[in-house]
Design brief:
heterodimer, A: alpha/beta, seven-stranded mixed sheet, five-stranded parallel sheet, 22 strands, B: alpha+beta, four-stranded antiparallel sheet, 21 strands
């Protein structure tokens, strides 16, 4: 059985489905193939369900700890199966919406796994048959999956990856998070808030690698408050499950908590600790290994990513790649942007991926959101910079919603006054970063942010004040002037 | 410190600034390309003769700039004088409009051209390189109007019109019409042709020639050339014949200096060769034809053709012709009436060679025989060369063509 299509979009995640819809808007006949549900990891097993859980965790924490502002609640408890059901309903609403959008735009959807058998031919295995599909152009948007850790086989019962951790039906007593990156901390914090004793083991010297350490410190403080024990410079060696499926003994070598190296003799020593559950979040691997890409004349780089040009075209001119498989950063919104660019390029428009500002958000408590150059990156580029800090504790809105932790850190070019980067840790950081992103994308100067009126009392005032601070004269913090 | 436009080559005093390759704040190394300048010969990249940071650009894209004119100011060190060699690399190739868009977006946060995403999209659609646009907005921000203005300006730039970049298909009074910017090499050709026809008093003289001996000789030479990796065409033979005949009629190898009211006779024979390229007609020069062998000429011609097709011709390649040869016959046609490569006074057209029955007197009897036959067309500037002189030159030239061994007698 052989069929033909004009444009195939392989993968229906946030890169693929956006690409497919834009292609359809531009008059292309589109066939979308995904082995699982529409919406990809993001909607089904990532961003969306995790945010639902994180919201619930924060709500529970607030409800249980609001006596100091006069809200006294007794007997608050978490009904995990019900919470999971609600989370699933959120996911279903969204995926249902995407499916109907694809349909309304005339995109054909095939549920099946695909691999190349030639540069313009796919073999698709569905639940009922195997068919071949020829096409003129293809966009590969197959995304990524959690990286496996040897010695810790994921069973989703005792040892989870992020997928399993989003669907637990019973809370474990204790949980070991292997990996102190954003996924591990987002989920680890949720479980800590709903009463699980959480331990984080991170191989590197700091949490949230790549994030300005000034920001991750604020999160580390909250982890401590939640009773999460954090071990940096530490490695897990292996594990042994007990026969009842009740506990796992993990062998590991410990560095010091919070990066303080323990004495040499101790740090070499292997420890054994027991946990009821283990969550492995050590990174993500691109889904490029099961597509027989060599049949299409494509090669991946050493990390399994496809190399693409400004139009997101691969080395084979009729094949495009977008989203996680097209390389860092592995962010849904980066994939969506690439999806639009690739679709427009296929339709013959002069589109190009010329993004200046790529925001990243982390839903820890407090949230972290960053865009542009960090202090370290700007210095590495040899730029002379000015830094402005403004604490949430000096913002009326932050205080009145009982969220005084965190700050805005703004980086500007000392010579030109241009905005280079904005880094926020604090309440609603994820919602605050868009203003900074727009400013960067438009090429704003720090002054532009400082001179723009910001509504009072709101959290975005922190951005205006940080801009003023960068220029040396924030209203709501006092800085004694230097005296000779 | 200041950087001024260096010498561009003999007889070239000015050029149009097509594109800045650097911008204010950039750190520039020795020999790094600073900008592209289009002269009436070719587009050249101007290499940096200094090392340091660009402080200010003094010339706007689209402006004519003269040798010695202040181009940019920099903070750094100038190279020694010997470093300011003449620019070596002309190119008609342009970077793709996206080329300045680095994938590593982080790198461009500090030093990019200020422009909103919508402006960047417009620039892409119109094929305008943001780097070359002077922004009229605050802090030099490029506004949409700047892009539109740039598009009109660059009508005179060397950017070859490439399909799809700024073509617009529009509805016309009687159906669809397409509007394509008329610029780059095409525009230069238009200007040169117009100048030639305006100034020179063209007339064209055509004569037929028996090329049988030439064909035989060329076929023999072809195999010898092939062994040396040289493709031997008719052109080197015709050039040798031209040069030999020019020695008897030096006025055809002259130029008219109208400003000074002098006729300049040239006793070297540099023959320009019209070559059709993707972007349009070019006329690179085969130097010193009189002193080169047929094989040497063939090798020179092959090199020029390759460089022309690959857009790698140097200024030197394009400079210094005294007369021009155009091979009009490679496609077909009976004969052409070539346009003089002004300020030269003559251009020879080589037309197609066909086998043809002709009447010949053999042993006192008329017979019809098959000969390789061709026409030569010679366009002359009648202000300088009279018809009779042209006809005599042609007669001598054809004598060499019909009896190529006579070229050996020339010295």
């Amino acid at each position: 059985m052989s069929n033909s299509a004009d444009v195939v979009v392989l993968g229906a995640g946030p890169a693929g489905y956006v690409c497919a819809i834009r292609l359809a808007q531009l008059g292309k006949k589109v066939t979308v193939i995904d082995q699982a549900e529409v919406g990809g990891v993001c909607l089904n097993r990532g961003c969306i369900p995790s945010k639902a859980l994180i919201y619930a965790g924060s709500l529970f924490e607030k409800v249980a700890h609001s006596s100091e502002i006069g809200i006294e609640v007794e007997g608050a408890k978490v009904n995990l199966p019900k919470l999971m059901k609600w989370k699933d309903s959120v996911v279903q609403k969204l995926t249902g919406g995407v499916a109907s959008l694809l349909k309304a735009n005339g995109c054909q959807f095939i549920a099946g796994s695909a691999r190349f058998v030639g540069p313009k031919v796919l073999e698709i295995k569905t639940s009922t048959n195997t068919q071949q599909l020829t096409f003129n152009q293809i966009v590969i948007a197959t995304g990524s999956r959690p990286t496996l850790l040897p010695g810790f086989d994921i069973d989703q019962k005792q040892i989870f990856d992020s997928t399993g951790a989003l669907s637990l039906q019973k809370l474990p007593q204790s949980l070991l998070c292997i990996g102190g990156g954003y996924i591990g901390l987002e989920l680890g914090m949720f479980y800590a808030k709903v009463g699980v004793k959480v331990t984080v083991v991170e191989g590197g010297s700091g949490l949230l690698g790549g994030v300005d350490p000034d920001l991750s410190k604020v999160v580390a403080k909250k982890l401590e408050k939640l009773g999460v024990s954090v071990h940096l410079n530490s490695q897990v060696k292996g594990c042994r499950k007990d026969s009842h499926g009740k506990s796992i003994e993990v062998t590991w070598t410990a560095g010091g908590p919070e990066g303080k190296p323990e004495s040499k003799s101790e740090s070499k020593k292997e420890k054994k600790s027991e946990f009821e559950a283990v969550l492995v979040t050590i990174g993500r691997t691109p889904n490029s290994d099961q597509l027989s890409l060599n049949q299409a004349g494509l090669k991946v780089d050493s990390k399994g990513f496809l190399t693409v040009d400004a139009q997101r075209r691969t080395s084979v001119s009729h094949i495009y790649a977008i989203g996680d498989i097209a390389g860092q950063p592995l962010l849904a919104h980066k994939g969506s942007k690439e999806g639009m660019v690739a679709a427009e390029a296929i339709a013959g428009l002069k589109s190009a991926y010329d993004v200046v500002a790529m925001p990243a958000v982390i839903f820890t408590d407090p949230e972290i959101a960053t865009v542009g150059l960090t202090e370290a990156e700007a210095k590495a580029q040899g730029l002379e910079i000015r830094i402005g800090l403004f604490p949430f504790a000096a913002n009326g809105r932050a205080l009145s919603v009982a969220e005084p932790e965190g700050f805005v850190k703004m980086i500007g070019d000392a010579k030109t006054g241009r905005l280079l980067g904005v880094h926020i840790v604090g309440a609603e950081a994820s919602n605050l970063i868009s203003e900074a992103t727009l400013a960067l994308e438009m090429g704003a100067h720090i002054e532009d942010l400082a001179l723009t009126v910001h509504a009072h009392p709101t959290l975005p005032e922190t951005l205006m004040e940080a801009a003023e601070a960068t220029l040396g004269h924030a209203i709501h913090i006092f800085k004694p002037s230097k005296r000779e | 410190m200041q950087f001024r436009l260096p010498e561009l080559g003999e007889g070239v005093h000015e050029g149009e600034l097509i594109k800045w390759s650097v911008k204010v704040g950039d750190f520039v190394k020795y020999d790094q390309s600073l900008c592209e300048i289009m002269t009436d010969k070719a587009t050249v990249e101007i290499p940096s003769a200094f090392q340091g940071k660009v402080a200010e650009l003094h010339v706007q894209v689209g402006k004519m700039i003269h040798v010695g004119e202040l181009m940019l100011s920099f903070e750094g060190t100038a190279a020694s004088v010997s470093h300011a060699e003449k620019p070596s690399l002309p190119s008609n190739s342009i970077p793709s409009p996206e080329s300045h868009v680095t994938h590593d977006s982080q790198a461009q946060i500090a030093n990019r051209t200020l422009a909103a995403p919508s402006t960047r999209r417009l620039a892409r659609e119109m094929g305008v390189d943001l780097l070359g646009v002077k922004g009229s907005g605050p802090h030099g921000r490029v506004m949409k109007e700047d892009i539109r203005k740039e598009e009109i300006h660059s009508a005179g730039s060397a950017v070859p019109v490439r399909a799809g970049i700024s073509e617009r298909v529009l509805p016309g009074p009687a159906g669809e019409e397409k509007r394509v910017p008329f610029r780059g090499l095409r525009k230069k050709i238009a200007e040169k042709m117009r100048l030639s026809k305006d100034r020179a008093a063209h007339f064209t003289y055509v004569e037929e020639a028996d090329a049988t001996a030439l064909v035989t000789l060329r076929n023999q030479a072809k195999d010898i050339g092939a062994k040396q990796g040289v493709k031997i065409t008719y052109l080197p033979f015709v050039m040798k014949a031209m040069a030999a005949a020019l020695k008897q009629f030096p006025i055809l190898n002259s130029t008219l200096d109208e400003e000074r009211g002098e006729l300049v006779y040239k006793y070297y024979y540099n023959i320009g060769l019209s070559i059709q390229t993707e972007d349009g007609l070019m006329a690179p020069v085969v130097k010193d034809v009189a002193h080169k062998s047929v094989i040497e000429l063939a090798r020179d011609i092959q090199g020029l053709v390759d460089r022309a097709r690959n857009k790698r011709l140097t200024l030197d390649d394009l400079h210094g012709s005294t007369i021009t040869l155009t091979n009009a016959g490679s496609i077909g046609g009976l004969f052409a009436t070539p346009v003089i490569n002004y300020p030269e006074v003559a251009i020879l057209g080589l037309n197609k060679i066909v086998r043809k029955p002709v009447v010949k007197v053999i042993n006192g009897r008329e017979e019809i025989v098959i000969r390789d036959w061709t026409y030569f067309s010679l366009s002359l500037d009648h202000r300088v060369v009279d018809g009779a002189i042209g006809a005599e030159y042609m007669k001598l030239l054809i004598q060499y063509i019909e009896n190529p061994s006579l070229i050996l007698l020339d010295s």
